[in-house]
Amino acid sequence: MKCALFFLFFAGVTADLEEWKNFKIRHGKAYTSSVEDRRRFSVFHENLKKILDHNERFNKGEVTYAMKVTKFTDMTEKEFKDFLKNSYGGGMRSSDYSQDAAHESTDDQPSSVNIKELPKTIDWRNQGAVTKVKDQGMCGSCWAFSAVGALEGQHYKSNGTLLDLSAQDLVDCADGTYGNMGCKGGLMSYAYDYVKDKGILTENEYPYKGHQESCKQKGNGFKIKSYINVTIKDENALTQAVATIGPISCCMDASCMSSYSHGIVDSTCGCDSDRYSMNHGVLVVGYGEEKGIEYWIVKNSWGADWGEKGYFRLKKDGQNTCGIATDSSYPLA
Protein backbone atom coordinates (compact mmCIF):
# COMPACT_ATOMS: atom_id res chain seq x y z
CA MET A 1 0.00 0.00 0.00
CA LYS A 2 2.82 2.42 0.92
CA CYS A 3 4.54 1.51 -2.35
CA ALA A 4 1.39 2.31 -4.33
CA LEU A 5 0.93 5.65 -2.58
CA PHE A 6 4.57 6.58 -3.19
CA PHE A 7 4.19 5.69 -6.87
CA LEU A 8 1.10 7.88 -7.21
CA PHE A 9 2.87 10.78 -5.46
CA PHE A 10 5.98 10.38 -7.62
CA ALA A 11 3.89 10.18 -10.80
CA GLY A 12 2.04 13.35 -9.79
CA VAL A 13 5.23 15.31 -9.12
CA THR A 14 6.73 14.08 -12.41
CA ALA A 15 3.64 15.27 -14.29
CA ASP A 16 3.87 18.64 -12.52
CA LEU A 17 7.54 18.94 -13.46
CA GLU A 18 6.67 18.36 -17.10
CA GLU A 19 3.91 20.96 -16.84
CA TRP A 20 6.43 23.30 -15.20
CA LYS A 21 8.92 22.82 -18.02
CA ASN A 22 6.24 23.56 -20.62
CA PHE A 23 5.05 26.59 -18.62
CA LYS A 24 8.53 28.15 -18.59
CA ILE A 25 8.98 27.62 -22.32
CA ARG A 26 5.51 28.89 -23.22
CA HIS A 27 5.79 32.09 -21.16
CA GLY A 28 9.52 32.72 -21.54
CA LYS A 29 10.19 32.36 -17.82
CA ALA A 30 13.77 32.45 -16.57
CA TYR A 31 14.77 32.78 -12.92
CA THR A 32 17.87 34.26 -11.33
CA SER A 33 19.03 31.03 -9.66
CA SER A 34 18.24 27.35 -9.20
CA VAL A 35 16.99 28.20 -5.70
CA GLU A 36 14.51 30.70 -7.15
CA ASP A 37 13.49 28.16 -9.79
CA ARG A 38 12.68 25.61 -7.08
CA ARG A 39 10.75 28.21 -5.08
CA ARG A 40 8.73 29.18 -8.13
CA PHE A 41 8.03 25.52 -8.89
CA SER A 42 6.68 25.11 -5.37
CA VAL A 43 4.31 28.06 -5.91
CA PHE A 44 3.36 26.69 -9.33
CA HIS A 45 2.68 23.24 -7.84
CA GLU A 46 0.31 24.67 -5.21
CA ASN A 47 -1.51 26.84 -7.74
CA LEU A 48 -1.85 23.90 -10.11
CA LYS A 49 -3.56 21.88 -7.37
CA LYS A 50 -6.01 24.76 -6.81
CA ILE A 51 -6.73 24.91 -10.53
CA LEU A 52 -7.39 21.17 -10.77
CA ASP A 53 -9.60 21.20 -7.66
CA HIS A 54 -11.58 24.16 -9.00
CA ASN A 55 -12.07 22.51 -12.38
CA GLU A 56 -13.46 19.40 -10.72
CA ARG A 57 -16.12 21.65 -9.22
CA PHE A 58 -16.67 23.29 -12.61
CA ASN A 59 -17.19 19.89 -14.26
CA LYS A 60 -19.78 19.05 -11.59
CA GLY A 61 -21.63 22.30 -12.28
CA GLU A 62 -20.82 23.77 -8.88
CA VAL A 63 -19.13 26.88 -10.31
CA THR A 64 -19.74 28.77 -13.55
CA TYR A 65 -16.18 29.31 -14.78
CA ALA A 66 -13.07 27.20 -15.32
CA MET A 67 -9.41 27.86 -14.57
CA LYS A 68 -6.16 27.12 -16.38
CA VAL A 69 -2.41 27.66 -16.09
CA THR A 70 -1.54 31.23 -17.09
CA LYS A 71 1.59 33.38 -17.01
CA PHE A 72 0.67 34.24 -13.40
CA THR A 73 0.70 30.64 -12.10
CA ASP A 74 4.22 31.02 -10.65
CA MET A 75 3.07 33.96 -8.50
CA THR A 76 1.72 33.78 -4.96
CA GLU A 77 -1.67 35.33 -4.25
CA LYS A 78 0.07 38.26 -2.54
CA GLU A 79 2.43 38.81 -5.47
CA PHE A 80 -0.47 38.86 -7.92
CA LYS A 81 -2.38 41.33 -5.75
CA ASP A 82 0.73 43.51 -5.50
CA PHE A 83 0.99 43.47 -9.31
CA LEU A 84 -2.63 44.65 -9.51
CA LYS A 85 -2.16 47.22 -6.76
CA ASN A 86 0.53 48.92 -8.83
CA SER A 87 -1.68 48.96 -11.92
CA TYR A 88 -5.10 50.59 -11.57
CA GLY A 89 -4.81 53.70 -9.40
CA GLY A 90 -1.37 52.70 -8.14
CA GLY A 91 -0.37 54.86 -5.20
CA MET A 92 -3.64 56.79 -5.54
CA ARG A 93 -5.48 54.13 -3.60
CA SER A 94 -7.13 56.45 -1.07
CA SER A 95 -6.28 60.15 -0.84
CA ASP A 96 -6.24 60.88 -4.56
CA TYR A 97 -9.64 59.30 -5.13
CA SER A 98 -11.10 62.05 -2.98
CA GLN A 99 -9.64 64.55 -5.46
CA ASP A 100 -11.61 63.17 -8.41
CA ALA A 101 -13.56 66.43 -8.53
CA ALA A 102 -10.52 68.00 -10.16
CA HIS A 103 -10.89 65.49 -12.97
CA GLU A 104 -14.69 65.39 -13.23
CA SER A 105 -16.22 65.16 -16.68
CA THR A 106 -17.50 68.45 -18.01
CA ASP A 107 -20.53 67.03 -19.82
CA ASP A 108 -23.72 65.64 -18.35
CA GLN A 109 -24.68 62.02 -18.78
CA PRO A 110 -27.37 61.25 -21.36
CA SER A 111 -30.88 61.01 -19.93
CA SER A 112 -31.66 57.52 -18.69
CA VAL A 113 -33.88 55.31 -20.81
CA ASN A 114 -36.11 52.37 -20.01
CA ILE A 115 -33.71 49.46 -19.68
CA LYS A 116 -36.25 47.23 -21.44
CA GLU A 117 -35.90 49.36 -24.58
CA LEU A 118 -32.21 48.52 -24.91
CA PRO A 119 -30.90 45.54 -26.92
CA LYS A 120 -30.97 42.20 -25.09
CA THR A 121 -27.41 41.55 -26.25
CA ILE A 122 -24.68 43.60 -27.88
CA ASP A 123 -21.08 42.92 -28.84
CA TRP A 124 -19.05 45.80 -30.27
CA ARG A 125 -16.48 43.35 -31.61
CA ASN A 126 -19.06 42.27 -34.18
CA GLN A 127 -19.54 45.89 -35.26
CA GLY A 128 -15.85 46.50 -35.93
CA ALA A 129 -15.25 48.86 -33.01
CA VAL A 130 -12.70 46.80 -31.06
CA THR A 131 -9.02 46.21 -31.86
CA LYS A 132 -7.08 43.03 -31.12
CA VAL A 133 -6.19 42.09 -27.55
CA LYS A 134 -2.90 43.52 -26.22
CA ASP A 135 -0.54 42.44 -23.44
CA GLN A 136 0.55 45.02 -20.87
CA GLY A 137 3.31 42.73 -19.60
CA MET A 138 4.47 43.45 -16.05
CA CYS A 139 3.99 47.20 -16.51
CA GLY A 140 1.05 48.49 -14.43
CA SER A 141 -0.57 50.06 -17.49
CA CYS A 142 -4.03 48.47 -17.49
CA TRP A 143 -5.52 51.95 -17.09
CA ALA A 144 -3.87 53.03 -20.36
CA PHE A 145 -5.15 50.02 -22.30
CA SER A 146 -8.64 50.49 -20.89
CA ALA A 147 -8.68 54.16 -21.90
CA VAL A 148 -7.21 53.36 -25.33
CA GLY A 149 -9.94 50.77 -25.96
CA ALA A 150 -12.70 53.29 -25.32
CA LEU A 151 -10.89 55.91 -27.42
CA GLU A 152 -10.53 53.43 -30.30
CA GLY A 153 -14.26 52.73 -30.16
CA GLN A 154 -15.16 56.41 -30.31
CA HIS A 155 -12.64 57.07 -33.09
CA TYR A 156 -14.30 54.28 -35.07
CA LYS A 157 -17.78 55.70 -34.48
CA SER A 158 -16.80 59.27 -35.37
CA ASN A 159 -14.39 58.59 -38.26
CA GLY A 160 -15.46 55.20 -39.60
CA THR A 161 -11.98 53.70 -39.23
CA LEU A 162 -10.60 51.41 -36.54
CA LEU A 163 -7.10 52.42 -35.42
CA ASP A 164 -4.80 50.88 -32.83
CA LEU A 165 -4.07 53.84 -30.58
CA SER A 166 -0.96 54.11 -28.41
CA ALA A 167 -1.03 52.97 -24.79
CA GLN A 168 2.65 53.93 -24.61
CA ASP A 169 1.72 57.54 -25.39
CA LEU A 170 -0.36 57.56 -22.20
CA VAL A 171 2.24 55.68 -20.14
CA ASP A 172 5.02 58.11 -21.09
CA CYS A 173 3.14 61.39 -21.29
CA ALA A 174 -0.08 61.37 -19.21
CA ASP A 175 1.81 61.60 -15.91
CA GLY A 176 2.90 64.60 -13.86
CA THR A 177 0.15 67.21 -13.80
CA TYR A 178 -2.31 64.70 -15.27
CA GLY A 179 -1.95 62.48 -12.20
CA ASN A 180 -0.95 59.11 -13.65
CA MET A 181 2.24 57.25 -12.79
CA GLY A 182 3.17 55.32 -15.93
CA CYS A 183 3.83 51.66 -15.11
CA LYS A 184 2.99 52.27 -11.45
CA GLY A 185 -0.68 52.90 -12.08
CA GLY A 186 -3.21 55.44 -13.24
CA LEU A 187 -6.85 56.21 -13.92
CA MET A 188 -8.70 56.25 -17.23
CA SER A 189 -10.34 59.61 -16.47
CA TYR A 190 -6.91 61.16 -15.97
CA ALA A 191 -5.84 59.72 -19.32
CA TYR A 192 -8.86 61.36 -20.98
CA ASP A 193 -7.79 64.75 -19.58
CA TYR A 194 -4.46 64.30 -21.33
CA VAL A 195 -6.01 63.21 -24.66
CA LYS A 196 -8.37 66.18 -24.53
CA ASP A 197 -5.39 68.53 -24.24
CA LYS A 198 -2.65 66.81 -26.24
CA GLY A 199 -4.27 64.11 -28.35
CA ILE A 200 -3.06 60.52 -28.71
CA LEU A 201 -0.91 58.93 -31.42
CA THR A 202 -1.41 55.54 -33.06
CA GLU A 203 0.35 52.35 -32.00
CA ASN A 204 2.42 52.45 -35.21
CA GLU A 205 3.57 55.99 -34.45
CA TYR A 206 4.28 55.28 -30.78
CA PRO A 207 4.66 51.50 -30.17
CA TYR A 208 4.27 49.84 -26.78
CA LYS A 209 7.49 49.16 -24.83
CA GLY A 210 6.19 47.73 -21.56
CA HIS A 211 8.07 50.30 -19.47
CA GLN A 212 7.94 54.07 -19.07
CA GLU A 213 10.23 56.24 -21.18
CA SER A 214 10.52 59.98 -21.80
CA CYS A 215 7.52 61.52 -23.55
CA LYS A 216 7.79 61.68 -27.34
CA GLN A 217 4.34 63.11 -28.10
CA LYS A 218 4.22 65.75 -30.85
CA GLY A 219 0.75 67.04 -30.04
CA ASN A 220 -0.81 66.05 -33.38
CA GLY A 221 -2.85 62.99 -32.44
CA PHE A 222 -6.54 62.14 -32.10
CA LYS A 223 -8.24 64.47 -29.61
CA ILE A 224 -11.49 64.24 -27.67
CA LYS A 225 -13.89 66.98 -26.57
CA SER A 226 -14.50 65.67 -23.07
CA TYR A 227 -15.52 62.52 -21.22
CA ILE A 228 -18.41 61.20 -19.18
CA ASN A 229 -18.35 59.44 -15.81
CA VAL A 230 -21.09 56.80 -15.69
CA THR A 231 -23.24 56.79 -12.54
CA ILE A 232 -21.27 55.00 -9.82
CA LYS A 233 -22.28 51.39 -9.08
CA ASP A 234 -25.30 51.58 -11.41
CA GLU A 235 -25.38 48.57 -13.77
CA ASN A 236 -28.42 49.95 -15.58
CA ALA A 237 -26.47 53.12 -16.39
CA LEU A 238 -23.53 51.00 -17.54
CA THR A 239 -25.87 48.88 -19.68
CA GLN A 240 -27.22 52.03 -21.33
CA ALA A 241 -23.71 53.34 -21.97
CA VAL A 242 -22.50 50.08 -23.51
CA ALA A 243 -25.64 49.74 -25.64
CA THR A 244 -25.74 53.30 -26.93
CA ILE A 245 -22.18 54.65 -26.77
CA GLY A 246 -19.75 51.80 -27.41
CA PRO A 247 -16.94 50.10 -25.45
CA ILE A 248 -16.71 51.58 -21.95
CA SER A 249 -13.69 51.89 -19.65
CA CYS A 250 -14.34 50.21 -16.30
CA CYS A 251 -12.43 49.25 -13.20
CA MET A 252 -12.83 46.09 -11.11
CA ASP A 253 -11.32 43.94 -8.40
CA ALA A 254 -9.43 41.34 -10.44
CA SER A 255 -7.83 39.59 -7.46
CA CYS A 256 -9.43 36.25 -8.37
CA MET A 257 -8.74 36.39 -12.11
CA SER A 258 -5.13 35.16 -12.36
CA SER A 259 -6.08 31.64 -13.51
CA TYR A 260 -9.32 32.34 -15.41
CA SER A 261 -9.90 30.11 -18.44
CA HIS A 262 -13.51 30.39 -19.61
CA GLY A 263 -17.07 30.73 -18.37
CA ILE A 264 -18.88 33.38 -16.33
CA VAL A 265 -17.19 34.74 -13.20
CA ASP A 266 -19.42 35.65 -10.25
CA SER A 267 -18.76 37.09 -6.80
CA THR A 268 -18.08 33.64 -5.32
CA CYS A 269 -14.60 33.90 -6.86
CA GLY A 270 -13.64 36.11 -3.93
CA CYS A 271 -13.68 39.59 -5.48
CA ASP A 272 -15.02 42.76 -3.87
CA SER A 273 -17.09 45.68 -5.16
CA ASP A 274 -15.93 48.37 -2.73
CA ARG A 275 -14.38 51.34 -4.54
CA TYR A 276 -11.09 51.09 -2.66
CA SER A 277 -10.75 47.42 -3.64
CA MET A 278 -10.58 48.33 -7.33
CA ASN A 279 -7.23 47.26 -8.78
CA HIS A 280 -7.59 46.73 -12.53
CA GLY A 281 -8.76 48.72 -15.55
CA VAL A 282 -10.64 46.84 -18.29
CA LEU A 283 -12.92 47.51 -21.27
CA VAL A 284 -16.56 46.37 -21.36
CA VAL A 285 -17.36 45.69 -25.04
CA GLY A 286 -20.82 44.18 -24.70
CA TYR A 287 -23.19 41.97 -22.77
CA GLY A 288 -25.15 38.78 -23.36
CA GLU A 289 -26.84 35.77 -21.80
CA GLU A 290 -26.02 32.06 -21.56
CA LYS A 291 -28.27 29.42 -20.00
CA GLY A 292 -30.27 32.09 -18.21
CA ILE A 293 -27.19 33.87 -16.81
CA GLU A 294 -26.61 37.44 -18.01
CA TYR A 295 -22.99 38.54 -18.36
CA TRP A 296 -20.70 41.37 -19.35
CA ILE A 297 -18.19 40.81 -22.17
CA VAL A 298 -14.89 42.27 -21.00
CA LYS A 299 -11.64 42.87 -22.88
CA ASN A 300 -8.51 42.42 -20.79
CA SER A 301 -4.88 43.43 -21.42
CA TRP A 302 -3.09 40.23 -20.40
CA GLY A 303 -2.59 38.81 -23.90
CA ALA A 304 -4.75 36.70 -26.22
CA ASP A 305 -3.62 33.43 -24.58
CA TRP A 306 -5.29 34.42 -21.30
CA GLY A 307 -8.99 33.66 -20.73
CA GLU A 308 -11.36 33.48 -23.70
CA LYS A 309 -8.84 34.72 -26.30
CA GLY A 310 -8.00 37.65 -24.06
CA TYR A 311 -11.58 38.30 -22.90
CA PHE A 312 -13.64 37.19 -19.93
CA ARG A 313 -17.28 37.18 -18.96
CA LEU A 314 -18.57 38.58 -15.69
CA LYS A 315 -21.99 37.99 -14.16
CA LYS A 316 -24.41 40.84 -14.89
CA ASP A 317 -27.06 40.70 -12.19
CA GLY A 318 -27.36 44.23 -10.83
CA GLN A 319 -25.10 43.37 -7.89
CA ASN A 320 -22.00 45.08 -9.33
CA THR A 321 -19.98 41.86 -9.50
CA CYS A 322 -16.29 42.51 -8.76
CA GLY A 323 -17.06 46.24 -8.89
CA ILE A 324 -17.46 46.39 -12.68
CA ALA A 325 -19.86 49.37 -12.44
CA THR A 326 -17.99 51.14 -9.64
CA ASP A 327 -15.97 53.58 -11.74
CA SER A 328 -16.85 53.66 -15.46
CA SER A 329 -16.23 56.34 -18.06
CA TYR A 330 -16.03 57.03 -21.78
CA PRO A 331 -14.65 59.78 -24.04
CA LEU A 332 -16.63 62.13 -26.25
CA ALA A 333 -14.99 62.48 -29.67
UniProtKB/TrEMBL annotation:
<dbReference type="GO" id="GO:0008234">
    <property type="term" value="F:cysteine-type peptidase activity"/>
</dbReference>
<dbReference type="InterPro" id="IPR000169">
    <property type="entry name" value="Pept_cys_AS"/>
</dbReference>
<feature type="domain" description="Cathepsin propeptide inhibitor">
    <location>
        <begin position="20"/>
        <end position="80"/>
    </location>
</feature>
<keyword id="KW-0865">Zymogen</keyword>
<dbReference type="InterPro" id="IPR038765">
    <property type="entry name" value="Papain-like_cys_pep_sf"/>
</dbReference>
<protein>
    <submittedName>
        <fullName>Uncharacterized protein</fullName>
    </submittedName>
</protein>
<dbReference type="InterPro" id="IPR000668">
    <property type="entry name" value="Peptidase_C1A_C"/>
</dbReference>
<feature type="region of interest" description="Disordered">
    <location>
        <begin position="94"/>
        <end position="114"/>
    </location>
</feature>
<keyword id="KW-0378">Hydrolase</keyword>
<dbReference type="GO" id="GO:0006508">
    <property type="term" value="P:proteolysis"/>
</dbReference>
<dbReference type="InterPro" id="IPR025660">
    <property type="entry name" value="Pept_his_AS"/>
</dbReference>
<dbReference type="InterPro" id="IPR013201">
    <property type="entry name" value="Prot_inhib_I29"/>
</dbReference>
<feature type="signal peptide">
    <location>
        <begin position="1"/>
        <end position="15"/>
    </location>
</feature>
<feature type="domain" description="Peptidase C1A papain C-terminal">
    <location>
        <begin position="118"/>
        <end position="332"/>
    </location>
</feature>
<dbReference type="InterPro" id="IPR013128">
    <property type="entry name" value="Peptidase_C1A"/>
</dbReference>
<keyword id="KW-1015">Disulfide bond</keyword>
<keyword id="KW-0788">Thiol protease</keyword>
<dbReference type="Pfam" id="PF00112">
    <property type="entry name" value="Peptidase_C1"/>
</dbReference>
<comment type="similarity">
    <text>Belongs to the peptidase C1 family.</text>
</comment>
<dbReference type="Pfam" id="PF08246">
    <property type="entry name" value="Inhibitor_I29"/>
</dbReference>
<dbReference type="InterPro" id="IPR039417">
    <property type="entry name" value="Peptidase_C1A_papain-like"/>
</dbReference>
<keyword id="KW-0732">Signal</keyword>
<keyword id="KW-0645">Protease</keyword>
<dbReference type="InterPro" id="IPR025661">
    <property type="entry name" value="Pept_asp_AS"/>
</dbReference>
